[in-house]
Description:
The protein is mainly alpha-helical. It has eight helices and no strands.
Amino acid sequence: MSSRRVAIGGLGSMMLAGVAAPCHAHMVESGLGPVYDGLLHFVLTPQDLLPVLALAVLAGLGGKTHARLAVLLLPLAWLVAGAVGARVAQPLPESIAWLPLLLLGGLLAVDRRGSPAVLAILAVALGAWLGYGNGAAMGVAGADIRAVLGSAGAVFVATALLAACAVAWQAGWMRIAWRVAGSWVAAAGLLLLGWTMR
């Protein structure tokens, strides 16, 4: 290949990159409206989805009282913080996205059962943190409160279903399976930590 062809190819690539439309990597547009866009944003963002699932299982393994607290408090905190985040539209730093994965995955892996008050604090803290970040990402992309409602609704459904499964299925080997799932969530947190440190 001649150097002239390489130069023309490079110049053409730079020109195409200069006229490309801006893209938002964290906002999914389904074409079904803002509620479904918010729902899909939550489902397709692993650093939001995995900690919520880990907290739901952790709550379910703690019993019905823990599960009910998680189902009530997590989506509520998500909704309130998400509305604030969408209004402010100032995203959280990506460098700390590993922390909820590592913390909740680790707690699930070691089968650490705390009091209902501890679980309530975890649910509110996780809902506020991830809800704010989710709402801020949607606010930057131009979404409104309806998208936050969609994501909070998805958090409610995911938490309710998985917490109910964990309450019902914790005999013998199933409890070990839940703990193994927690170790995988913690491993995802370690992987994300490694990426942020590189």
